[in-house]
Amino acid sequence: MACVMHPQQKFSESSLERCRRGDLEELSRVYAELLPSIQGYLQNLGASAMEAETLASEVLSDCLVGTLTRPPLIQKYHCRSSLSTWVSAVARNRYFDFMRGQKTDQAMAARLQEALMAGEGWVEDTVHDEHIFHTLRHALVQAFQTLSATDAVLLHLVHGHKVDQRILARSLGWSDSKMSRHLSSLRFELKKKVKSSLHDTGPGGTPKWEDLVQVCGQMFEPL
Amino acid sequence: MNTLSFESLPDDAPFEWLLDMFFRSELVACFSGQSDEEEIDGAMREMAAGRLEPVQVEELFGKVRSDSSAVARLAAILQESKVGVPEAKE
Questions:
Q1: Which residues pair with A208 in a beta bridge?
Q2: Contact B88/A173, CB-based, under 8 Å?
Q3: Do the Cβ atoms of A222 and B12 come within 8 Å?
Q4: What is the ipTM of this complex?
Q5: A64 in helix, strand or coil?
Q6: Which pLDDT tens digit goes with each residue over A57-96?
Q7: Please, which residues have CB within 8 angstroms of residue B39's CB and are 6 or more apart in sequence?
Q8: Contact criterion met (CB < 8 Å) for B88 and A152
Q9: B residues 4..43 contacting A (CB < 8 A)
């Protein structure tokens, strides 16, 4: 749908056009302009300050810049509402997805914790398909072996020790949003490599999430 | 048991959780090894104080990659000295 033309909207439309063309100066301006309001909106929905900051950065990055594999979402913006309202709607959906993921993760973590506390017997009783287990474990290790030292340590610090990614961003001279995008991209590539490896060597049929959980349950000892 | 298909994961959240478990369970033993504790601990403190250049930080990461206990020490040092890290430029 074409944008409705009003004199007072000329600046916005010019801005939008420049953003769609990938004008870095305008993209940076719009990013800086929208970031505080999106963060505030997410916090009003219930996000913590850190969650709001991370999600707002990711949403704005996805909307304005895109990723290696996805064009910026702004290409799909049809001016039916203001840009700020549209980005807020994207942020709201992302936050709800995030919360659903959190609930799933918490439930999974609780089940796994119980299973780990139950000891080795659980592993013997629960892992029915040894071949799937070894294939998944192999895929995970292979994926990690392809990482550079910096990327491996970054993921280790963020996921293994919950180091604030902003500290790491500053140490490397990166902006917070660059670090957020880099970590998202790393996770995406790892996931892709794991899936690719599973397709190459898997026993036929796609492993289920529960298989991955079982793999985690097997991680009592280093490989 | 959750039957969410690996193929149809809606976003990165479950995979992030998988990575959390992966690292906490020390499965990254494919990087197993030991590093020179005295040498790198000094560099870690310098990093935490914001006195290492980015390239030196990457060198430090290269040295600790193979030593999960060193990564754990680095994490502890960074978390303790969080306030001292200067703001990065956009």
A1: B5
A2: yes
A3: no
A4: 0.73
A5: helix
A6: 888 988 888 876 678 888 888 887 888 888 998 998 888 8
A7: B63
A8: no
A9: 4-7, 9-32
